[in-house]
Amino acid sequence: MNDELELLREWDADAAPFTGPARDRARHQLLNAMAHADQRTGTGPSRRHALRLAAAAVVATAVTGTAVLIGTDGSGEDGAPGTSTPRVENAAATVLNGAAAWEREQEKEPLAPRDDQFIYSKRIIKETEQKTGKVKTYTDEMWDSVDVSKPSLSMELGREMWEEPAGKGGGVWPPRKWSELKKLPQDPEKLISAIISLGSRADDRSISDLDKLERFEAYWLLGELLKNLVLPQGLRPAAYEALALVPGVKTIPGVKDSAGRTGVGIAHTERGSYEGKYLIFDPASYEFLGFRDERISASGKKKYIQLSHVVEWGIVDRVKQRP
Q1: Which of 55, 214, 286, 301 has an alpha carbon within 20 to 30 A of 243's alpha carbon?
Q2: In which element (H, E) is residue 179 found?
Q3: 299-321 residues labelled b (16+ CB within 10 A) or e (exposed)
Q4: pLDDT digits (tens, 9 = 90+) for 71-128
């Protein structure tokens, strides 16, 4: 499925509540839509908006954000196959637990945003056309409504896109409201259980009880949580530690970030051969450096490699206001 909005076309607003099996099928559709979000056309709605609509229709909760943390086959920067060994698994846990330790040393209790405010961010995207090597650099800015009651403004590769407020009872993942973020567990295992249930209460299942789809879902949603620039103290380190517990996490050594620094990539490998989409960390300090992503042109003939990192963020009172 290349068009996330197919989920909307297939959904009947007057349908009866989902049964357990139907909910599982809907979740499967949603995760597939996330995984193929990079194949959207250049003129359609933003991936953040389309995924939010699809998720609202399918599982009665809204999911936002570009699916950066999609599985990879463990290949390196040049596309050569990587190895899948326990040593690599341990290396990924070392990096992620190291990132958690780095965050705990640096973090302070942030100023909590009010529900009527916006979270501002500016990121740099360095995009390279794979075949020609042509490079373009974009500066994208976003103003996200904290309680999603106001229109949000985002940019994708320099194009401005307005996102309408969520409807009654709607929300986003990750949540931006401080009261909702504070409810998320900071125990890594309980955090995984909480996000799998798309709520704030953990169930009794262990990580070993999760199937492949749920493990991919946990990895993807934890990655989206880490994109949230304003988190309660302790939650970001807990999310890194939770990622380290998810089976299928692998390292990709010797990758470059958007500033040209050499780092180590972290990706998930159990959802097919989605290559080259991962988080990038400093190989010594384990500081988070940025993202690597890929996209396909509307024609399907061009492939682009994207490197990105956030350069500025803050809490503001209105759209287009800067910190």
Answers
A1: 55
A2: helix 178-183
A3: eeeeebbbbbbbeebbbbeebee
A4: 233 333 333 333 333 344 578 999 999 999 999 999 988 899 999 999 999 999 999 9
